[in-house]
Design goal:
Elements (H helix, E strand, L loop, with lengths): L2 H22 L2 H17 L2 H5 L4 H25 L24 H10 L2 H7 L4 H12 L4 H8 L3 H18 L6 H17 L2 H6 L1 E10 L11 E2 L1 H14 L4 E7 L2 E8 L2 E11 L2 E8 L11
Parallel strand pairs: 1-6
Antiparallel strand pairs: 1-2, 3-4, 4-5, 5-6
Helix pairs in contact: 1-2, 1-4, 2-4, 4-7, 4-8, 7-9, 8-9
């Protein structure tokens, strides 16, 4: 394999992982799905592989079927998941090509496509809806091709995609600009560090919700915390209990967020969803199995 073929192979694997992540919500599950896809590819005979005119299309179809099966079983697993389940937060430009030196505007577009707000909404969809939305709206696959993956007619798949878009419109209000979002998050951090309860409450939507995901491995709130005053007091209480923990700014696919560090080790990511100039959601990822991207 020459350098050009190797680069193409790496780019294709990156594309498949990005696709699987949108479908499954964690890089671990995405990597497993891609690994299974390649195992099935290499199990084909030489003649069978030679008969496949577009390997990329074959890999995408097989991966999508694997993800569809995984989503169906994941629903059952998440019913017994300890506490809240959140999608895995990722560093900005995580799926950018090469060393991440792509054009900044391109990186923002890639990041928006895997934003936590969108992934949270995708979790509310049925597995076929999610597959149809990701394949058609994010990857431009025609409805007849998707129909062969989900076992529906093209017309039924079109309806699935329409239903999925409705979920997105209802569950993901128009996002603010990245700069506006980051200015709200910066003000939030300043109020938190100053112990300014009133200032913190003012930056939170009255119906704000805080969710924390410990996966049953790390202690976390088992249920969502609702309301500006309760969320602010919860955060101040957590900071008071763990004074050794620092909050360091970093960039996620959503924009500015904070790493919780203890002994210079990332033990959590605090991320935000900003709507209309205030914070509508606070997401705290504490599950160590979903922090691998931050420890490399």
């Amino acid at each position: 394999m020459d350098d050009e073929d190797l680069d193409a192979s790496i780019d294709e694997r990156r594309r498949l992982v990005a696709l699987a992540y949108r479908m499954l919500g964690t890089t671990g599950e995405a990597e497993d799905a891609v690994q299974e896809t390649y195992i099935r590819w290499y199990r084909l005979s030489d003649d069978e592989r030679a008969a496949i005119s577009i390997p990329q299309a074959w890999l995408t179809r097989v991966l999508s079927r694997i993800c569809l099966d995984a989503l169906t079983t994941a629903r059952a697993r998440r019913e017994i998941y300890v506490g809240e389940w959140l999608p895995e937060p990722l560093p900005a430009g995580h799926f950018s090509p090469g060393d991440g030196a792509a054009d900044p505007l391109d990186r923002v577009t890639l990041d928006d496509a895997v934003s936590s707000a969108l992934l949270v909404v995708l979790e509310t969809m049925s597995p076929p809806e999610r597959i149809a939305f990701v394949l058609h709206d994010a990857f431009g696959m025609p409805f007849p091709e998707i129909a062969t993956i989900v076992g529906r007619t093209p017309a039924a798949v079109r309806q699935l995609a329409t239903s999925a878009r409705r979920h997105v419109r209802l569950g993901r209000p128009r996002p603010v600009s990245r700069s506006e979002r980051d200015s709200v998050v910066t003000a939030f951090a300043a109020a938190a560090r100053a112990g300014d309860l009133a200032g913190l409450v003012a930056l939170l939507d009255p119906s704000v919700t805080l969710r924390s995901d410990g996966g049953g491995i790390i202690s976390a709130a088992r249920r969502p915390v609702h309301g500006a005053d309760r969320v602010a007091r919860f955060l101040f209480g957590a900071m008071a209990k763990h004074p050794e923990t620092t909050l360091d700014e970093l960039r996620t696919t959503d924009g500015l967020a904070f790493a919780m560090r203890a002994d210079r080790r990332v033990i959590g990511i605090v991320n935000f969803h900003v709507v209309g100039g205030v914070i509508a959601d606070v997401w705290m990822m504490l599950n160590p199995e979903k922090l691998n991207a931050w420890r490399r």
